[in-house]
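G., before I forget:
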Amino acid sequence: MARLGRSTWAFGEHQVAVKAVSTVAGPWESRGPLSDAFDVRLDDDRAGQDTWERAEQAMFRQACDIACDKAGIVASDVDLVIGADLNAQLTSFYIGLRQLARPMLGVYSACASLCEALAVASLAVATGFADVVLAGTSSHNSTAERQFRYPTEYGVQRPPTAQRTVTGAGAAIVTRGRGMWQITHATLGEITDFGVKSPWEMGAAMAPAACDTIRQHLADTGRSLDDYDLVMTGDLGRIGLDILRRLLVDEGVAPESVVRERVNDCGAIIYHPDQPEVFSGGSGAACSTLVTFGHVFREMERGGLRRVLVSATGALLSQVSAQQGETIPSISHAIAFERGD
Amino acid sequence: MPVATPEERARYQALVHRLTPGRPVIRNTARAFVVGGLICELGQLIQALFVRYGGFKPTEAGNPTVAVLILLSAVFTALGVYDRFAQWAGAGSAVPVTGFSNTMTSAAMEHRSEGFVAGIGGNMFKVSGPVIVYGVVSAFFIALIRYIVEHL
């Protein structure tokens, strides 16, 4: 356990592991190309509940239950619960998981929250303050629309840069020791702000944050992009991913061929490009969670990937800040995963 | 790099601009023209029906026509169709009567879960409120100007 460079925590080999993960995906996500990577595929985005908010809470709760089941533990074995969602006051996390009756830490860095939660979980495990940590996030298309935009049925024309908030939830059981998915590093991001104001251009707002954190991670660890089989950003979407790749090349992080081959984005691959109402791709706190815990972890298990950096990206705006004409500050936190064998 | 200087911002905006597909302005304009026109044609048709079969005078048929359009738009909003239609039709679907009905119906549906008073009552005009406020304010000033001009 050591700090590397400016902002990277190194947890050491075989110190912190993800023991089990779970994913609950909404209907749109279940019709996407990663469909068979998810544990639960809902065909009803109300999840049998009477409001969108309760639906999101139920999904979050279900994800936690499945993660515990897979790890062979019960809720009372969990020492600490860390989580996030996009609703004001983190209601999906706190209300959805209140019955767990375990110590809880709600965190928020918008859609970068997954990596923030995993960083804090790893810290707690590595220092010995907790042996078993449950970490997860949720988001729901319709609760996010209400939180950040318009009523769901309001007829407003979205530009091609718009993204669809992912409906889903996912959770991980983080423990000490060896496991299939080792957490080796966490790089904590700094705020970047390049003056993007439009809430329809989240990809452009967040791409510099992802670029900054990836660059910082590589500098702190002395690694290069080639040391990773895959670098996944959270939810830049297809347009944001193009911008990020250009930034990484321009910043001299790696040559264009390497960047094209190694760098991808969860939001760019969670939906088919021709799915309706998807536009530039997926976004939301559950976007990186579903893709990382569903798709990326499965590929690691199958042996196609050994070392992966996930740099989840968050746009730190509110409806008020956007209406007051504020620019959109963004942040990205990165977690390095490695196969433990 | 974190908080960009004005020069860095400008350079970044240029990069974003280069890599961002623009809104399909010509396609949007054409669709808005056709769809907006068709909605008005529909209104005209309904009005003609009220005159022919409902016994309304042409000057009085406007109100029931508007009521029918409001109802149609509310029904299609409730069925979850209007927002998809609006994505395709753009400004064409925002023509006053149907667009206005959609703003009110969608806000009422959205906030139904917060109750009838604080939810529906308190939020129904959330999206459409500005139209009413500035419609009334601008009507007042236009009337005032007209009054002054006519009486001077």
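Chain B has one domain: 24-151. The two ends of chain B are 63 Å apart (CA to CA).

More on Monday.
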